[in-house]
């Protein structure tokens, strides 16, 4: 492997360890008796980018989740019982992002809330350019 890939993997492993160790009021972790993280919940704000009915997932550009991940565009799964949000593409939203350990981490979205149109989201300029919002 290239040194850059190894460095990125090491940094990611450190971020996951840090995320597992922290437990602030805006997110929580649930695990087994041995301390394994099986679920991680985060209150997040972002821009709704659409719904893929075939895959039952949404696309969002979200703000940074401190000590977990940078602001980015993501496709988030919806649990079977969760309906797609009734939002227009480009609309600001609040939601709960849930990470579940299932052969690696799999991310879900739930509890959608439309935010006022004038909501100031903290998204990097490069991300705004990429998504066109």
TrEMBL record:
Residues 18-40 are annotated as: Disordered. InterPro entries: CusF_sf (IPR042230). Keywords: Signal. It comes from the Bacteria. Residues 1-21 form the signal peptide. This is Copper-binding protein. The lineage of its organism: Bacteria, Pseudomonadati, Pseudomonadota, Gammaproteobacteria, Oceanospirillales.
